[in-house]
Amino acid sequence: MRKLTPISQRLEAKVIKTDDCWLWQGAKNPNGYGQIWDMDAGRLRLVHRVSYEQEHGPVADEACVLHRCDVPACVRPSHLFLGTKKDNTQDMIAKGRSRMGVSLPGESNLAARLNAVQVGEIRTLHSGGLAIRACARRYGVSQRTIQRIVRGTHWQEIR
What we know:
The chain is α+β, with helices and mostly antiparallel strands. It has two domains: 7-94, Homing Intron 3 (I-Ppo) Encoded Endonuclease, Chain A (Alpha-Beta Complex), CATH 3.90.75; 106-151, Arc Repressor Mutant, subunit A (Orthogonal Bundle). Helices cover 35% and strands 14% of the residues. The protein contains six helices and six strands. The protein has helices at 7-13, 47-56, 85-94, 116-127, 132-139, 143-151; strands at residues 15-17, 22-24, 35-38, 43-46, 64-67, 80-83. Helix 5 (132-139) crosses helix 6. The longest helix is centred in the C-terminal third of the chain and has 12 residues, at 116-127. The protein is elongated and about 80 Å long. The protein starts with 6 loop residues before the first helix and ends in an 8-residue tail after the last helix.
């Protein structure tokens, strides 16, 4: 029977240690985070999470291991910290990495269906008496979107 190499040795063998980050050189997921097969768990695991656990001990399944350096391939324990899913989302937004456009206002939001000119027109038309429903129909968006624009909860940067 073949002797299996411990995960700690396999991790160490695929890391390049620079003065700043320790960069994983093995397999990565589509988001750039390192992956390694954990024979004990019988599944792929995120390498930065394994690295954190080697330094600090087990991490609850519901906890997230976040990067201070914001480098997905980094596994340096001093660059990693624990947080919740909410902390992870807030960190992503604060660093401008939101793929869903949560942190991106107006037209820079990839999900935006309106532009700044249209938002200005909507506010002008509504203040002139055009109903929310009519505005929604005219611009092909929901009544809720128009309500949020008119109230100023969406497109706050356009006045």
